[in-house]
Specification:
alpha/beta; Tat pathway signal protein; DUF1501; TAT_signal
């Protein structure tokens, strides 16, 4: 019989390992451990038989709050006047210098609902020449002013929110609250597992990958709420692939001790220990499969230059192997990310550098997808917890609300601006979309609507989409129907 001291050390070891299990060489154990306390309904359709093609969704999360009003910039008209007035000192000026908007790079913000009609002249940041080219070649679209909403909100309703009962996400303007809400589209509920809408999508279509020995939900930048499901298990992979952990895959005393702990846990009467042991065995097997798949994939060495590009390089390798017998995955969901977007100071320099990283990474990734014939079956989209204020605080901007996003791929209705471009006039002088007087723009397209359009392209039906996005029915238009061709 195991002594109390030995049993205590064993339990402490298991606890410590659980805290460290989100590394780049392990599957997240969270998915399987959640099975103890909850289960998510499977999709209402027989996706395993109906979704016979291959598709991959790639989420690019910009951590910190991307100032999208300096990413997609009005060039002329009233919007330019409002922008320059609010942004005086941090506006992107017109001219021919590298940090200015060159007239040759101006694009039309075409309205997909009215072909040939433009919302006006806009330009991407000067650090994004490749994104400009992708937009002009109809491979990239802008989703205007999207953000965290429970129901539609006007300026008047927001200002009178204490009296009118309007429903708002908690912690607006807070990094942690808005990151979690963006990724889950749910308010926290004590005692209930909080899943992300990427994970819920993966739960719904699990049977499309029933022939695969690993589940096709990957993160290249650690574990985050977006890819957490109740049934699927996300695989955390570093930008250089997977590496073995010595105490799991080695042949030393520590590895032998770990193997004995797992053997004992399989026989345990404690369901948590038994489930943990099962998850660990599954992890070891899955890591071996992914390592073999990455070893057999093309190198994609052209996707390089920064940390985001390195993550997308591994994503490209996984995509290239999705119909290989090693993976055999008809649907893949991939999460990548880049930090450094909380630009309270030194914004012009910092933001230009970060946007340049995105420009390089996305363009090289799309070139690779085009070259390999995956363009129509891979959709890449950006996200950030919130936008930033139009007004400035010296040489930076503050936390705000609505923001523009980018969607890229061969199936995208590119060269268009989806949703509603907001007025950039400050509320103090009549701005209808300002939550106050500082240019914190109220979103006009909810994350639920944005996600629903992506889920529809991915192949989910309207009933399952409604289940994934709990607030969707609060909006008059359930998604962005013209986001894809």
């Amino acid at each position: 019989m195991m002594s109390k001291t030995t049993d205590l050390k064993r339990r402490q070891f298991l606890k410590q390992l659980a805290l460290a299990a989100g590394g780049t060489s392990l599957l997240s154990y969270q998915g399987q451990l959640q099975l103890i306390q909850s289960a998510y309904a499977a999709g209402s359709s027989d996706y395993g038989n109906t979704l016979t093609d291959h598709k991959t969704l790639v989420c690019v999360f910009l951590f910190g709050g991307n100032d999208s009003f300096n990413m997609f910039i009005p060039y002329s008209g009233d919007q330019r006047t409002y922008y320059e007035t609010a942004r005086s000192g941090l506006e992107i000026t017109k001219g021919v210098n590298p940090d200015q908007i060159n007239p040759a790079d101006v694009v039309e913000a075409y309205d997909p609902e009215n072909p040939g009609i433009s919302h006006g002249e806009y330009a991407f940041h000067p650090s994004m020449p490749n994104i400009t080219s992708l937009y002009n070649s109809n491979k990239l679209a802008v989703v205007a002013n999207t953000g965290n909403l429970i129901e539609p909100v006007t300026r008047a309703q927001y200002l009178d929110r204490k009296n009118n009962g309007i429903l708002l996400p908690s912690g607006i303007f807070s990094h942690s609250h808005m990151q979690n809400y963006w990724q889950t589209s749910e308010e926290p509920n004590p005692g209930q597992v909080r899943t992300g809408w990427g994970g819920r999508m993966a739960d719904m279509i699990m049977d499309t990958n029933s022939a695969s020995s690993v589940q096709a939900l990957y993160t290249m930048t650690g574990i985050h709420p977006w890819e957490v499901g109740n049934d699927v298990i996300q695989l955390s992979i570093g930008s250089s692939g997977l590496t073995n952990v010595s105490y799991i895959n080695g042949s030393n005393d520590r590895s032998n001790a770990w193997s004995q702990i797992l053997a004992d846990s399989h026989l345990s009467a404690n369901p948590l220990e038994e489930t943990y042991a099962i998850a660990s065995d599954s992890t070891k097997d899955s890591v071996a499969v992914i390592q073999s798949a990455l070893a057999g994939a093309p190198d994609f060495g052209t996707i390089t230059g920064n940390s985001l590009a390195n993550q997308l390089r591994v994503a490209a390798q996984l995509i290239s192997m999705r119909d290989d017998p090693l993976l055999n995955q008809r649907r893949q969901i991939i999460f990548v990310g880049l930090g450094g977007w909380d630009t309270h100071g030194n914004q012009l320099e910092t933001h230009a550098y970060r946007l340049g990283q995105v420009d390089t990474a996305l363009s090289l990734f799309q070139q690779a997808m085009d070259a390999e014939g995956y363009a129509d079956s891979v959709t890449t989209f950006t996200a950030s917890e919130f936008g930033r204020s139009l007004t400035i605080n010296g040489d930076g901007t503050d936390h705000a609300w609505g923001a523009h996003a980018l969607v890229m791929g061969g199936a995208v209705n590119g060269g268009k601006v989806l949703g509603t471009l907001p007025s950039l006039q400050l509320g103090a002088v009549g701005g209808q979309d300002d939550a106050g007087n500082d240019g914190r723009i109220i979103p006009t397209t909810a994350i639920d609507q944005y996600g629903a359009a992506l889920a529809e392209w991915f192949g989910l039906n309207s009933s399952d989409i409604d289940d994934i996005f709990p607030n969707l029915t609060n909006f008059p238009s359930s998604n962005l129907p013209l986001l894809f061709t």
